[in-house]
Amino acid sequence: MTTEPIKVGMADLRAAPAPLTLITTGLGSCVGVCLWDPIMKVGGLAHIMLPDSTQSRSIQNKAKYADTGVTLLIEEMVKLGAVKSRLVAKIAGGAQMFNFPGASNVMRIGERNTEAVKKCLEQEKIRILAEDTGGNFGRTIEFSTTDGQLLIKTISKGEKVV
Amino acid sequence: MKDFSELNAIQLDALKEISNIGAGNAATSLSLMLGRKIDMSVPKANIAPFNQIMNYLGGAESEVAGGYMRVDGESPMGILFLIPKDQVYFFIDLIFGQPLGTTQDLNEMHFSALKEIVNILAGSYLNALSAFTQQVYSPSVPALAIDMAGAILGDVLQQIGEFSDYALVIENVFIEQERHINGHFFLLPEPKTLELLLRTLGVL
Q1: What is the DSSP track for B128-187?
Q2: Predicted complex ipTM
């Protein structure tokens, strides 16, 4: 790959055509959603921070939430020529970095993010091809728009491609 | 005030000033614990959208030890203390009075010791804040994670994510001269806490 990967920050999303690569670093309880159109070779990556926009007071940034983020990512990809019915998904993240004694529901945010993302993908009728979620460790993910492969890097658990 | 992005220069300076006093207290505690002289950098107060906040950390992928405490109640906020992973061993050796280089791996006892450091640092910091605001802050027990800086900070920022698209990060760096230890201390107030702080400081 000769081109620099496109960086996607926290609560941010990007869509790109092949041969570009999308990368997001340091996913903790956030969830990285990767969507891909295998025919048009258009990919998208959203770094989802929170499960539900309806629970929030301000929704200026749609990329922050699972529900609005997934919808917006699809829209951005369609603009680049992707066809929604062809999209497939790979997701990673949703860990729990800190373990508080007697942790409340609020602290299980990684799990809630993962559940919310899956629900949104189901509603959009997008099939999940691979999932690497949970645990208590951070992940950096790199998504190839050329072949839809997702490289997952961790500090304690090594690397893998899904 | 609707968002952190609306803070002006005077308000930021006021926040840096109380942070300086809080961190000064914490640095003294750290110095006593380690039996070493600990210096402190000028505090930085950064307001940034979430997608840029990682830039302040010097790499979201760098491996760090992060101690995190939450303050609930009237003034909710997060307190995070980050030390680069390779410097944690040096910390441990100092605490346990061992020859430097003894610690090569971390066990449960080391984890407890690190949590205690975070506890004492945050306590000293909050004491200074209490003196200003006449409020009592009761922090949670500390939680510890050793992993990517971005993943750790991300988890802490989620608390603020519910209210804002921006985060205010007040950062103090503790420096141990001989071995160049850099500990980063972050104060992450929720918007209503910030409002309270600014009002108490007379800049709102």
Answers
A1: HHHHHH-----BPPPEEEEEEHHHHHHHHHHHHHTT-SEEEEEEEEEEETTTTEEEEEEE
A2: 0.84
A111, A103 contact by CB (below 8 A)? no
Instruction: Please classify residue B6 by burial: count the beta carbons closer than 10 Å to its beta carbon, then call 0-12 exposed, 13-18 middle and 19+ buried.
Output: exposed
Q: Is B153 on the interface with A (CB under 8 A)?
A: yes
Q: Flag whether A128 is in a domain.
A: yes
Task: Name the residue facing B147 among A9, A47, A155 (closest C-beta).
Answer: A155
Residue A84 CA, chain-centre distance (Å), reads 17
At residue B9, what is the residue type? A
- The pLDDT tens digits of the residues spanning A8-59 come to 988 999 999 999 999 999 899 999 999 999 999 999 999 999 998 887 766 6
Domain extent at residue B96: 9-201
Under a CB-based contact definition with an 8 Å cutoff, are residues B179 and B192 in contact? no
Residue of A nearest to B165 (CA): A61
Q: Is-above-0.90 flag for pTM?
A: no
Pairwise CB contact (< 8 Å): B162 & A50: yes
Residue A1 is assigned to a structural domain of this protein: no
Give the closest residue to B26 by CA, choosing from B178, B129, B105: B129
Tell whether A50 is covered by a domain.
Answer: yes
